[in-house]
Amino acid sequence: MIAFDFSSRVAVITGAGGGIGQRIANMILKAGGSVVMIDLKEEPGDLAGLPEQRLYAQGDLTDQAFVTAVIDEGAARFGSIDHLANVAGVLWFDRDASLLEIDLDVWDEIFEINLKSMVHTARAAVPHMRRTGGGTMVHFSTTQCLRGDPVPQDAYSTAKAGVGALSRSLASQLASYNIRSNAIYPGLTMTPLQARWGIPEKRAEIARTVPLGRIAEPDELASAAVFLLSEGASYITGIDLVVDGGLLLK
Ligand SMILES: NC(=O)c1ccc[n+]([C@@H]2O[C@H](COP(=O)([O-])OP(=O)(O)OC[C@H]3O[C@@H](n4cnc5c(N)ncnc54)[C@H](O)[C@@H]3O)[C@@H](O)[C@H]2O)c1
User: Fold this and answer.
1) Best mutation site among 23, 39, 42, 248 for ligand 1, i.e. most ligand atoms within 8 A of its Cβ?
2) Per residue in 15-43, pLDDT tens?
3) Taking the model in full, what pTM does it have?
4) Active-site residue 156, yes or no?
5) How far is the CA of 140 from the centre of ligand 1 (A)?
6) What is the pLDDT of residue 3?
7) CA of 193 to the centre of ligand 1 (A)
8) 68-97, pLDDT tens digit by residue?
């Protein structure tokens, strides 16, 4: 594992109550950074670091006023906003479906959470980054939007395809302000989002579809995100990083 230094750095992390977001928060906390975390869920009990390194806001990312207030509070408390990890997302197997038949209110709701919430966080974070001379961002998409799925979840994959465009737009518009933006495309990762793989037989069946022969651990996605946020990726912007154990090779 590469060790990164985030001391005196401040990161906003959405979805920090979930599998991958919580791991990103812990890696940055252990590397000496402060984190501003936003999630619908309660604060996880197993966060690293000291309480004074953390601001946890339980609430809805589709509420622009709430998001802006939390990020501004984080900047006031910690002195800057240097990083943004847009991790939160929903995959609603029960209600997401083919675009030909999905309830359009559900379609809109999925877009609000999976794509527009990233607009709220970026609009709130970028002024702070510009004020202090730069910053880095990472936005979570999915390999599903690159390869399709036999069971369509069209709102999810279409919104996630937009995440790549959002990231590249931010990268090109903000490069001159020393702000980098990159997108991550996870493959199959064992988190609460994939509770459907609860039984070992199901997990083994899923693992056999991956060239590396296993489902990813959340830490394997978190370390890719932390790398892109870190100084180690200082010349990387506007890329789409696939982290999928070779799934797209098939
Ligand atoms: N797990 C996988 O197999 C997989 C695969 C591809 C992409 N991804 C993407 O990775 C990202 C992280 O997923 P994960 O696997 O850690 O899932 P997760 O369900 O463990 O975490 C997602 C978090 O987002 C939060 N969230 C959802 N809607 C919210 C809202 N409106 N406001 C505030 N918080 C909200 C949830 O409460 C949850 O804690 C997601 O964007 C997901 O689409 C995951």
Assistant:
1) 39
2) 999 999 999 999 999 999 999 999 999 99
3) 0.98
4) yes
5) 9
6) 78
7) 6
8) 999 999 999 999 999 999 999 999 999 999
Domains of the chain (ranges; CATH) run 10-244 (3.40.50.720)
Judge contact between 22 and 16, C-beta under 8 A: yes
Measured from the Cα of 41, ligand 1's closest atom is: 37
Is residue 25 within 8 A of residue 55, CB to CB? The reply is no
Structure tokens at 250: 């098939």
User: Which of helix, strand or coil describes residue 183?
Assistant: strand
- Pocket perturbation via mutation, ligand 1, pick of 12, 13, 20 by most ligand atoms within 8 A of CB: 20
CA–centroid distance for 131 within its chain: 24
Token look-up 């991956």 returns 210
88 lines ligand 1 (CB under 6 A): yes
**What is the rounded average pLDDT for all residues in the chain?**
96
Distance 18 CA to ligand 1 centre (A): 6
- Predicted confidence (pLDDT) at residue 193 exceeds the cutoff of 90: no
Whether residue 163 contacts residue 141, with contact meaning beta carbons closer than 8 Å, is answered with: yes
Which two tokens mark 175?
Answer: 């490069």
Q: What is the pLDDT of residue 100?
A: 96
